[in-house]
Amino acid sequence: MARLGRVITEAIVLHYGRDEMLARLSHPFWFQSFGAVMGMDWHSSGITTSVLGALKRGLPAELGLHVCGGRGRHSRKTPGELTVLAEKLGLDGVALVRASRLTAKVDSAAVQDGFQIYLHGFIVADDGKWAVVQQGMRPEAKTARRYHWHSAAVRDFVDAPHSAIDGAPVGEIVNLTDRSAASSREAQVALLREGPDRIIRELKPQLTLPFHHEVRADDVVLRRLHGALAAAAEAGPRDFSELLLVPGVGARTVFSLAQVAEVVHGAPFRFSDPARFSMAHGGKDGHPFPVPLAVYDRTISVMRAALEKAKLGNEERLEALKRLALQAQALERVARGPSFDAFVEAERAASHGYAGRTVMGWAQPEPDRRERKRLSALLR
């Protein structure tokens, strides 16, 4: 995940700048899609830990984006990490530490929703701009809620400061950062002992994920999937491999590249179905299918080669990836393709050939037709 996260981030920074990457990390649908395309379980709360961990391990210092904090005890190291980083970059370390502490305090105290903050990720750029992604857990319900912040959108830490808060509504919520709670905040300052004078029952959930673990047909916008498949069929295998000059790139890798390219270039509304991006590289739990490591590694190779060329002034390969994403979107209106179930079944059948793997082990080869018939007879 660290390698793919790095090349995707480098591509975004190269095309659009560091500010855009911070903005995307603050967008819940994009964040979920980013994790899914890297092979993380598409709807798991663990996607937050995995994405931030991959970026913290994988991003080079020269990119100008730095990840501080993390999960559990690592979150408590954030002030120290920010102080050291600020000294190296000549930034206001006191202000950054204050921002880190305030975002954590707001989401644990001012937003009283029953979720205990256990993960705090602070992403800061060389110019001092930042984004925060943190997550709380509700142990008794085994559900999580994610909180997104972006320094460019924060005018006041206690007055509608969030870019997004993701999670299903659960019970009664006291959200003292809501603009309609201004009078309540003023009353608390004036009358500390009496507490809040009103309860805010409404929070703005941006992204609600289902309880089922597997990827289902209604989790995916099928026309978008068909668009990516059609673009892969038209662009590869021969023409695209010649264009990118990377041996072994076929239609399957081009399909994954189309999904990755959309994560780099897609507009916000394109990420309303994050599960679709798990179709690029599957999931480590086997849903919707095992991670095809051969495809995964080739995707990274193509992205890495394109980025290295772009750094030397030749952006043709990166532009080809951008055109691939645009072509997939254009083909959505007319493309036809397999049903969701047929697509997943085909991927699972081909998984062994793609070096498919899950946390349980390597994918096994599918039995041939005669063997399936024999097994079927034994089970009758």
Descriptive report:
By secondary structure, this protein is α+β, with helices and mostly antiparallel strands. The protein has 2 domains: 44-194, no CATH class; 217-379, no CATH class. Helix content is 48%, strand content 13%. The chain is built from 15 helices and 10 strands. The chain has helices at residues 2-16, 18-25, 28-37, 46-58, 78-89, 93-110, 182-190, 222-235, 238-244, 251-265, 278-281, 293-311, 316-331, 340-350, 369-379, and strands at 65-71, 111-112, 116-125, 130-138, 143-150, 164-166, 174-175, 291-292, 356-358, 361-362. The strands form 3 sheets. A 5-stranded antiparallel beta sheet has the order 1-3-4-5-6, with helices on both faces. The chain has a 3-stranded antiparallel beta sheet with strand order 8-9-10. The protein has a two-stranded antiparallel ribbon with strand order 2-7. A hairpin with a 4-residue loop joins strand 3 and strand 4. Helix 10 crosses helix 13. The longest helix has 19 residues, at 293-311. The two termini are 43 Å apart. Residues 190-205 and 236-245 have low confidence and may be disordered.
